[in-house]
Specification:
96 residues, mainly alpha, 2 domains
Length: 96
């Protein structure tokens, strides 16, 4: 196996925090977690979970009322179309 050293400058704080989390996740080292990340990156198989922050989601009062009404409709199975097949769904979408 051909090996190469990759050097990535990071702050001491970031390195320590990442190392602690890597160990908590069961990795033997931070390097092992970085190797896994690079392997997934190379295969284009990365996925990230991004939690929305409250400051990014600001609904107007009207939108809040609209979504609350939609939630009630979903709970009560009102104003909802249940397609019986893909063709049925496509017909319904093209009708509207």
């Amino acid at each position: 196996m051909d090996k190469m050293i990759l050097q990535v400058p990071v702050s001491k704080t970031l390195k320590k925090q990442a190392e602690a989390v890597a160990l908590d996740y069961g990795f033997s080292s931070l390097q092992e977690s970085v190797r896994l990340f690079l392997a997934k990156l190379a295969k284009r198989s990365l996925s990230f979970e991004i939690e929305p922050k409250e400051e990014y989601v600001k609904l107007s009062a009207a939108a809040q009322r609209r979504y609350a009404a939609m939630d009630k409709d979903f709970e009560n199975d009102r104003n909802i179309y249940h397609a019986k097949s893909v063709d049925d769904l496509m017909r319904h979408l093209h009708e509207g």
